[in-house]
Design brief:
By secondary structure, this protein is α/β, with parallel strands linked by helices. Helices cover about 30% and strands about 25% of the residues. Helix 9 links the parallel strand 10 and strand 11. Helix 3 packs parallel to helix 4. The protein is globular. The two termini are about 40 Å apart. About 45% of the residues are buried.
Length: about 375
């Protein structure tokens, strides 16, 4: 692909960023392309935390191809970092390489960077530009922006239902409402998340693993269970493999010890009603560097999360069927007036196999 303008360069860099969709957390997904006279001479994407960022990968790629990058242009999907974290500053690497120009899609929301990366490049005599395909670049790292700007993850709630809004029959049967393509697509969304959250009701009734299956992923998201009274069985499949977080509202030393033996961590976050403080949990997850949180829970927890303002986006799969009386999507209080309705906006609507996938966002 030839690069005719900055849009072309950033668009290609975004394709490279997508290669790191499942691996970069808690770092952002970043891609970098280096070009000279419209020809690509190096490209790369950010590796797992502690390893090389996209800019360094692209510089290495150019060197391995035998290209001199001096005087070339680098297109990067996020402002190059300017601080020492797990790795040295990428801005320094670009300066040392002798690039003539750096184009960034969007500024880094991390307060440790926030314009300083571009300023460092400019001070070194490199021509800089920022603000190319910003919307696409932000979407690529919507969770990272959420954590940096709000201190909490981007919360995406997934559910599958019939056209009459039922997630299960009256007897609880729910496998399978949607088709194979929709289920595979749902696992792709699981894989891109940093963590998957469910409630004790779902664990008790379905005993899910909450793992990514059916698609290739080098990393399994962390699993989180909301369990106010620590009712979870130490033999629950969600505990297999360890590192599951159990969030409760009351302590139980004996049960906590059993869960620790299974490799789980118990987090105690009570609210005044003796339930888990959900907004406080979102802040805690932000502190623990969770960028994107994927929710797959029952209608009661779904309703509570929405009612307490903890959900940013709904990922709904609607099957072309009617189930009649059965379980609904969300347990929300009845309204006395339409003025109290919770408004959303359609972000994307797409057919997946025979089913419909809707991404709808809260304002």
């Amino acid at each position: 692909m030839n690069i005719a303008n900055d849009n072309d360069g950033i668009r290609l860099a975004l394709e490279w960023a997508a290669k790191g969709m499942f691996i970069t957390t808690p770092n952002p997904r970043v891609g970098c392309v280096i070009a000279r006279d419209g020809q690509i001479i190096g490209a790369g994407f950010t590796q797992p935390a502690g390893q090389a960022h996209a800019e360094v990968q692209a510089l290495r790629d150019a060197a391995q191809r035998g290209h001199d990058v001096r005087g070339a242009t680098a297109y990067v999907t996020l402002e190059p970092c300017s601080h020492h974290g797990r790795t040295p500053p990428c801005a320094d690497a670009l300066v040392a390489a002798g690039l003539a120009r750096v184009v960034a899609a969007i500024g880094d929301p991390n307060p440790l960077v926030a314009g300083q990366g571009m300023a460092k490049l400019h001070a070194a005599g490199i021509a800089v530009a920022c603000g190319v395909l910003e919307h696409e670049a932000r979407e690529m790292n919507i969770g990272f922006f959420s954590r940096m700007q709000r201190g909490r993850p981007w919360v995406r709630m997934k559910a599958a239902a019939s056209l009459d809004g039922k997630t299960a029959l009256h007897n609880g049967q729910s496998q399978w409402i949607t088709g194979e393509a929709a289920r595979a697509d749902g696992h792709w969304w699981r894989a891109r998340a940093c963590a998957i959250l469910t409630g004790i009701g779902t664990v008790t009734e379905d005993d899910p693993q909450l793992t990514v299956r059916g698609i290739d992923t080098p990393r399994q998201p962390r699993r989180i269970v909301i369990d106010s009274r620590l009712q979870i069985s130490p033999n629950a499949r969600v505990l297999e493999g360890g590192e599951t977080w159990i969030v409760c509202a009351q302590r139980n030393a004996e049960k906590e010890a059993l869960l620790r033996e299974r490799g789980a961590e118990v987090i105690v976050l009570p609210n005044a009603a003796g339930k888990v403080d959900l907004p406080a949990l979102m802040q805690e997850l932000g502190r623990r560097q969770i960028n994107e949180l994927h929710v797959e829970a029952g209608f009661k927890l779904n309703g509570s999360l929405i009612a307490e303002g903890c959900v940013d986006e709904l990922l709904l799969y609607l099957a072309p069927s009617l189930l009649g009386d059965g379980a609904g999507l969300f347990d929300l209080p009845a309204l006395e007036s339409l003025e109290g309705k919770r408004a959303l906006s359609f972000h994307e609507v797409r057919q997946v196999g025979p089913d419909l996938r809707i991404l709808a966002r809260f304002p």
